[in-house]
Amino acid sequence: MSVVPNSEVQLLGQSNAVQTILSDVDCAARSGAKVLITGETGVGKEVVARLIHLRSARAAGRLVTVNCAGLPDSLLESELFGHVRGSFTGAYRDKPGLLEMAPNGTVFLDEVGEMSTRMQVVLLRFLETGEIQRVGADRSHIRVNVRLITATNRDLPKEIAAGNFREDLFFRLNVIRMHIPPLRERIEDVPLLFDHYLDYYCQQHRVARPQVSPGALDALMAYRWPGNIRELRNVAERLALKSSGQVLRPGDLPTEVVKPADRFEAAAAEGAAAAPSTSSPVEDLTGRMLRHGESFWSVVHPLFMARDLTRDDLRRIIEIGLENTNGNYRLLVALYNMPNEDYKRFLGFLRKHNCHLPFQRFRTIASRAQQTRPVAAAG
Amino acid sequence: MSSEPSAPAQHGTIVVVDDDVSCLVAVEQILRHWGLETRTFRAFEDARSYLAHARPAVVIVDVRLGNYNGLQLIHFSRQHSPETQWLVVSGFDDPVLRNEATRLGAAFLTKPLDLQRLREYLPGGHT
């Protein structure tokens, strides 16, 4: 659950898309109906949820955020609905759920498309009755008055067609739908956003604010920003730390921004001396662990927990590692610079987030993979 | 299927929004037969931009509109056209959506439409 100061909650941009979203936010805030926010990862779905809460009649109540991805079913149910003492190993006392902890407030369920079908049924029942039944309790406990805002980067109608998401739940959650377009579809907002984050990070890190050359600005606007605003924010922070006040030129920008097509070649040419910021996040992070001896816990773990890395990114990082260790997780622990005794903790972490890849396939393709993947094999 | 740009509607217009064209045409024909001025929309976005300015007497809207829920349209219209009567139509009777509709001041009808009930909600319906 992340807490952002209210003053920082804003949706920046002058594009028509942002203006439409802002007027929809007001509309949704006034109505009190359930909202489903859709959009790619990093577009700012949580910011929109916060804005709706803060502008609604529930602003005095709490906003509780729950990420439905990465939590096993039973844990998610217990997080949302609470549990009674003795309902499972380790449940030493009664614990209220998050739905109870936001009376007259808002509960934001992020990545709702990742919910298992069983949890979907539990949520469906809650929407119908408004009653909370704690895990292990034989009857419902109380009724709560919360507003539900949900978000997903999945195409739910497609998931419904594939049998992964319940149609009735979709219609109940999707009373007001807000789609946040990707940054590449409102590229005119990039200068404003980049300026804002550069200012913000220069102030935060107490460094001189660099000027941005027109060429660099052109490159920023020509880039497709697959990671959307989250990626732009990260680039701004890295540049704020790197620039020490000089004018930012295209050559200072991360390679993927300037030359997306040749980023592998560029990264290889610059070799070990390259600054960590000159390749895509996955290659950048694996490079730091493989070449610079940094630990998985300090390089990858915090970014993943802050959701700056997706599960696919994490899986890719593990995959690159396993390709190097012939599928051996114990060697991977050493390769990613963790002490041997962290083996269990590391596997536990991967399992919890569903990123524990079966090792077998790396046993057979390892040698081929090492030949075809220079980044993975770089030592 | 009229969907010209959003000129303000005459008071008394009935708007029908449904992405299922056969339902749309059927309802439109009945309303015209009853002598009511009718405008129809298949797409959420077209209906939304029309309703942002228009003040129809009645809007009949299906819950399922592609990726959207027809209930959402009420929010775009309620402030500037509070007198508009909303009829939310659904192929399935979902108590949660029925409550939501009632809370928004809309009537909730299930398909197939009961024409007599429908008539009660339309101008001159009680005569």
Name the assembly state: heterodimer
What is the domain total for the residues of chain A?
A: 3
Morphology of chain A:
globular
Give the strand order of the largest sheet of chain B, numbering strands 1, 2, ... along the chain. 2-1-3-6-7
Mean pLDDT of chain A: 84
SSE class of chain A:
alpha/beta
Number of helices of chain A: 19
Q: Name the chain pair with the biggest interface and residue counts per chain.
A: A-B, 18 and 17 residues
User: How much helical structure, as a percent, in the residues of chain A?
Assistant: 40-55%
CATH arch. level architecture of the largest domain in chain A: 3-Layer(aba) Sandwich
Query: What is the H/E string of chain A?
Result: HEHEHEEEHEEEHHEHHHHHHHHHHHHH
The total tally of domains of chain B equals 1
Q: Tell me the CATH topology of chain B.
A: Rossmann fold
Strand tally of chain A: 9
Whole-angstrom Rg of chain A: 23 Å
- Note the overall shape of chain B: globular
Q: Helicity range of the residues of chain B?
A: 25-40%
What CATH architecture of chain B would you give? 3-Layer(aba) Sandwich
CATH fourth-tier homologous superfamily of the largest domain in chain A: P-loop containing nucleotide triphosphate hydrolases
Tell me what portion of residues of chain A adopts beta-strand conformation. 5-15%
Low-confidence stretches of chain A: 1-7, 260-278, 365-379
Walk me through this protein's architecture.
- The complex is a heterodimer of chains A (379) and B (127).
- By secondary structure, chain A is of the alpha/beta class.
- Chain A folds into three domains: 6-181, Rossmann fold (3-Layer(aba) Sandwich); 183-253, Orthogonal Bundle (Helicase, Ruva Protein, domain 3); 278-379, no CATH class.
- In chain A, 49% of the residues lie in helices and 8% in strands.
- In chain A, the strands form three sheets. A five-stranded parallel β-sheet of chain A has the order 2-5-8-1-9, covered by helices on one side. A two-stranded antiparallel sheet of chain A has the order 3-4.
- The longest helix of chain A is centred in the first third of the chain and has 16 residues, at 16-31.
- The model of chain A is unreliable at 1-7, 260-278 and 365-379 (pLDDT under 50).
- Chain B has helices at 21-33, 44-51, 72-77, 95-103, 115-121; strands at 14-17, 38-41, 58-62, 64-65, 68-69, 85-90, 107-110.
- The longest helix of chain B is centred in the first third of the chain and has 13 residues, at 21-33.
- The model of chain B is unreliable at 1-10 (pLDDT under 50).
- The chains are: A alpha/beta (379), B alpha/beta (127).
- The A-B interface holds A 27-28, 30-34, 127-128, 157, 168, 171-172, 174-177, 179 and B 63-64, 67-69, 71-72, 75-76, 92, 94-97, 100, 103-104.
